[in-house]
């Protein structure tokens, strides 16, 4: 079996407010993985335009996500931070993958069904093909590990299926070109910890999302101390005190969500959190939650604001990251063209 050097890739869409779900499900993990892996982190602007975007707003949101990466602790000198549209090989490999993936596979994607709703005839072709571009993002770097939230699990499975089918369909050519028995690794999703699916603060059965109409449903990375405190105090709960054991959270989605958030922010396990707060009412627990949330998020938010004051610096980071990413991506595309039989 061909073995691949470990490399981490992940992406975040520049489509509005970055929130606690993005932070705990993804960005915080991106930061931790820098210690052990070579990492490539991407602002996926090509994915953003699968639904309508205002050009001026898109430009500022791309910079906002870049600022969030850096403010959270990603080092763009040691690792690679860039925006997708500056590396054309993503779109190029996505086309190849459109010819590898099957309609039936994409038809099963639940996120497409959710986003398209009843409107399937009228959404963009890009929205349907979204997951093949995602596979290209990862595999153009032959990345082996992908930190994401729970909602991306199905897309990651599809990326593995695409990699596997490419390896099978072109097995003879892959071997003939000296790549052994596989050209692409099967990328592994990294979805662990107490907050892989952070829920809305207003409804514990709904995912916390950038697009929820109510700003009270989420903690934004840009929220100041008072806003964070106010949103947590207003967060929906139930009348019972907190349980001391995980079993007691069954059927209590809001309580379960807040405990998960506390655990992820503080670094304690859920069991430890329940041991400490079991038997207490929500007002005491919420005060403690405000403290850990402010301590984690407020420094990121204020550093983001500072970074956004120097747009030229942020753009330079993206340009430099794109230049380095292109070297890696171009190498993969050259090999892919040879494997496919293209003349170059
Ligand atoms: P996006 O921009 O919607 O979200 C960015 C990351 O945040 C995670 N996330 C959450 N985690 C926990 N709880 C939540 N409520 C929550 N909401 C969002 C997402 O799982 C994601 O990890 N398709 C991707 C972007 C992408 C990508 C890729 C990711 C494009 N290409 C390649 C990995 C690899 C997306 O829409 O993420």
Protein architecture, described:
This protein is 54% helix and 6% strand. With 344 residues, it is mainly alpha-helical. It is globular. The model has no long low-confidence stretch (mean pLDDT 97). The structure holds tryptophanyl-5'AMP. Tryptophanyl-5'AMP binds at residues 9-13, 21-22, 25-26, 44, 47, 134, 137-138, 146, 148-149, 151-152, 196-198, 207-208.
Helical coverage, percent range: 40-55%
In angstroms, what separates the terminal alpha carbons? 29 Å
How many domains? The number is 2
Q: What is the name of the CATH superfamily of the largest domain?
A: HUPs
Decide which structural class fits the backbone: mainly alpha
Write out the strand line-up for the largest beta sheet, numbering strands in chain order: 1-2-3
Sheet with most strands: 3 strands, parallel
Q: Give unreliable regions as ranges.
A: none
| Counted beta strands | 5
Summarize the structure.
By secondary structure, the protein is mostly helical. The protein has 14 helices and five strands.
